[in-house]
Design a protein that fits this description.
By secondary structure, this protein is an alpha/beta fold. The chain has 8 helices and 6 strands; from the N terminus they run βαααβαβαβααββα.
Length: 295
Amino acid sequence: MDTEQGFRAAGSGPDGTGGVGGGRGAGRGESGRAGCGTPGGPGAGRGESGRAGCGTPGGQGAADGVPGHVAVIMDGNGRWAEARGLPRSEGHKAGAEPVRTVLKCAKKAGVGHLTLYTFSSENWYRSPEEIGNLFSLLVRYLDSETQELLISGVRLKAVGNLSKLPAASLAALEDACAALSANDGITLTLALSYGAREELAAAAASLAARASAGLLEPGDVDETLFASELWTAGLPDVDLLIRTGGDKRISNFLLWKLAYAELYFTDTLWPDFGEGDFLKALEDFRRRKRRFGRV
């Protein structure tokens, strides 16, 4: 099935995320590619006929001081709820509003891609009750927001081990991606059941299998070919990574795409993260000097 028509299941992401809401050793082949649609938008193919490169360091919009690709680790929902004597599920519910706010602000600022670490491979170790609540929230968010996203021109993608998602969540996600597939505005990508180490291992395994079958010479493997095997093929490199909640780590998120990213950490918990916080991160990015190894 072509990625513009539906999902290709792939493999697994942060220690503390789960804003809305891979098994190990997942195979690749046709069943090992995640996404509903092509992350890079029309023309950035994922199949054999559409190999995407490793992206341009600095993304698509960084030249004018606006990051072309912003990725967010949405951390702090549980702590936000616990500080108020509420169950963790209430923190996850409160985390839906910042998603709307950040998406709107990113679109207005001219950001081309916004990727949210929504549910990591490590999050599967949480209680069944919390996992169920997270995916019920995902379904409700998609049901309530898809029409607004359609009107706003937002294109929706997903990367990760989507085959592990509950059936209702997977169906809702696939329907929403299909409904928004013709949009050409900002691309919102949800990383679901995602882990970057597994993504890298799966890409290496795929290339090794092709080489073993005589379909590829080992010397042909370069950055561009390797990047085309990633679940995130088609997405540009991340320009700016934002992590809320006070921790200063990247938690197995987009390791390949973060090679030249600027990192921005804030103590603000995700449910409290608003327009002013996002604009502050963009202003901090604008002041950075990005040399990419040059002087």
